[in-house]
Amino acid sequence: MRLDKYLSDMGVESRSVLKKEIRKGLVSLNGEVVKDPSVDVDPQHCEILYKGEVVQYEAFSYYMMNKPTGVLSSTEDRKQKTVLDLFSENHRKDLFPVGRLDKDSEGLLLIMNDGTLAHKLLSPKMHIEKKYLVEIPGKISEEELDRFRQGIQYDTDLVAMPAKARCLSSSEEGSQVEVIIMEGKFHQIKKMFLALSPDYVVSKLQRLSMGPLHLDPALAPGEYRKLSEEEVQALKNCF
Ligand code: URA
Q1: Given 3.40.1170.60, 2.60.40.4070, 3.40.50.2000, 3.30.70.1560, which CATH number is that of 129-210?
Q2: Does domain 3-54 have CATH number 3.10.290.10?
Q3: Which of 36, 94, 102, 155 is catalytic?
Q4: Cα(164)–Cα(150) distance, rounded to whole angstroms?
Q5: Model confidence pLDDT, tens digit, residues 40-70
Q6: How far is the CA of 59 from the centre of ligand 1 (A)?
Q7: Ligand 1 pocket, mutate which of 190, 194, 215 (most atoms under 8 A from CB)
Q8: What number is the average pLDDT over the span 187-213?
Q9: Are the C-beta atoms of residues 203 and 135 closer than 8 Å to each other?
C-alpha cells in the first residue's frame, strides 16, 4: 500500500496534506526519513512514524459517541449534519454508525468499520439488549407496561418481542420509563408508546446501553471516544 494512503486510512491527516508533510520529511519508515508519498509499505511489518509518533496499524477502529439530538445517524448527507461530521477532519473514511438513532434521539451510538460485528450486533436473532430512557407526557400504568412485557403489536403487521420496562417516575405531568428491547425497527420505541395511547408522544429518547456497553457519563453530547480493547472484546463475546 502507498505510504500516503496508509497514513490517511489510519486517520492521521487527509491524503493531500500528507503528501506535503511526507515531502517535508515528517514521516519515517523503519528509522529512515522517506520523502516519497508513493513508497510501498507493509504496515504490519514496518514501523512508521509521523512527526515522531508511531502510527499503529489498525484493521478495525471502534468508537462510542454520545449522539446529540439534531444530527442524523448516517455517514453523509447533502443538507443535514451527520454523526460523522462530528468527527475530527482526519478520521478514517470507512467508519459508519451501527444502526440508527432518530434525528431527535440521543445517547449511545457505536461507530466502527467492522461490518461483520455491526451486522451481528444489529441482528434481532442475536438478542442484543438496547436500553432506552424514555419521557412521555401523562401518567403511565403498570398494566400498560405489561403490554410491552408481553410483546405489543405496534404497527399493522409488527409485533415487538417481549420487552423489559421499568417506570422510573410517573405523574399527571409526565412519565419516565426505562425500556429494553432486542430489536431496532424504524421508530420502534416511539411507535410502541403510541400503540398504548396516542397521547404518549415521546418527548425524549436516550439510548443508555447496547449489549455490555453503557453510555460513558464523561462524554458530553457530541463527544466520542475510542472503545477500549476490553470493550471491543465484550462486544465480541456477546455471540
Ligand atoms: N426507537 C425509536 O423510536 N427511535 C430511536 O431512535 C431508537 C429506538
Answers
A1: 3.30.70.1560
A2: yes
A3: 102
A4: 9
A5: 999 889 999 999 999 999 999 999 999 999 9
A6: 30
A7: 190
A8: 98
A9: yes
